Predict the structure of Mitogen-activated protein kinase.
Amino acid sequence: MAEFIRAQIFGTTFEITSRYTDLQPVGMGAFGLVCSAKDQLTGQPVAIKKIMKPFSTPVLSKRTYRELKLLKHLKHENVISLSDIFISPLEDIYFVTELLGTDLHRLLTSRPLEKQFIQYFLYQILRGLKYVHSAGVIHRDLKPSNILVNENCDLKICDFGLARIQDPQMTGYVSTRYYRAPEIMLTWQKYDVEVDIWSAGCIFAEMLEGKPLFPGKDHVNQFSIITELLGSPPEDVIHTICSENTLRFVQSLPKRERIPLSQKFKNADPAGETNPSDILGVELIIGGSGRSARTNACLRSQEENLSRTSSST
């Protein structure tokens, strides 16, 4: 039987097997505490995430099971990998993954990103999403703090606690508000992998501008801010709204024209040979249809740009 060692981190009991030493707090989230540690078996640094009371409610049990199942099966350079899992004597679950130095949120709040890093980060985000989506999985909570980065600028998507296998009927409210696709607000149930592409577009815009693109105070304000830039939803999108209250709200809004993204991002440097406004024009579409297919074309273009850049250095 494994020997467990206890430590107090941020007032929380952290129980780990003796295989892991040198615990240091990394961050605290709504659903768990993350510490760095050294794996005595491999000599490598790792991240250990404590899922607190994972079986206390059906919702938390589902979330924990989803994340475990997906981390176990998803294997890609731009997706975080699971190396170990254990249950402590107090019946908390611990996920052990590779350790990366920081996340994109911390990078964005510390300093502006240079053009070449923005291009490389966007490429890796889209590459990781393409793999996740090819497995029939929707992340549903893509945001800068769920994108890990190491000192080599390698990027990995993490936190699959809200991820789901694609299903015709999806939970309505998911994802952090700033990065939430409008179809989640409009239809509440019927959405697909396109919601992750919207989130990626919001993150790309934030990398360009150094601040969130749609910083809504609530879901009503959020949707209003979106339409101020992207215009009113087209009629075919409005007709897909399931909620009568939401439909009345959308129809009550003043008609707005889309502002050209080239005007909004006129100071943004081109990402290689691709204009940022062209990429955002593909990702930020009210009504998700077509975002993913068009973004894959952008991904191929980004890959060619990066290949040319590396061959010329």
In short: DSSP finds eleven helices and twelve strands in the chain. The chain has two domains: 12-98, 102-311.
